[in-house]
Amino acid sequence: MDGFTDLLDYPMYVVTAAAGGERSGCLVGFASQCSLEPVRFVVWLSKANHTRPVAERAAFLGVHVLGRDQLGLAELFGGETGDRVDKFDGVDWSPGRDGVPVLADARAWFVGRIEDRADWGDHVGFLLSPVDGDAMTMPRGALLRLSDVLDVTPGHPS
């Protein structure tokens, strides 16, 4: 399978969650639109990630895309863990639906209502129905991709 997946260059997303007075966010490479009518999107969160248990208690998730020039933000959400660091400290964000953090500097974002959750191995899938969002006009190829973050060491606790 490595030969197949090594050819892929997924877009990267920052997924945010809020529940019970706690907020969290992480860098995600496993996500995709999965339905046209109704529009649905799925994100898979690692079971090792601090964001997953917060998302399990949440009703909504935020999904953000970054530009290739936003590697610092990707390193923060991908290379740090919410177990040790408040990733939102010093980041421009505002509360979206149900308190979900919306990153002000994201090139595009949406907040989605969690319609379903599914255990798929070492990740949990969250099926989302978009309820709000915004996007900048950008040329194709300007979004942050997997190849841009290969040097980011995941910030999962050891």
Automatic annotation (TrEMBL):
It comes from the Bacteria. SUPFAM superfamilies: FMN-binding split barrel. InterPro entries: Flavin_Rdtase-like_dom, NADH-dep_flavin_reductase, Split_barrel_FMN-bd. Its EC number is 1.5.1.-. It is an enzyme of class 1 (oxidoreductase). GO terms for molecular function: oxidoreductase activity. Residues 8-153 form the Flavin reductase like domain. Pfam families: Flavin_Reduct. Keywords: Oxidoreductase. This is Flavin reductase family protein. It comes from Streptomyces fildesensis.
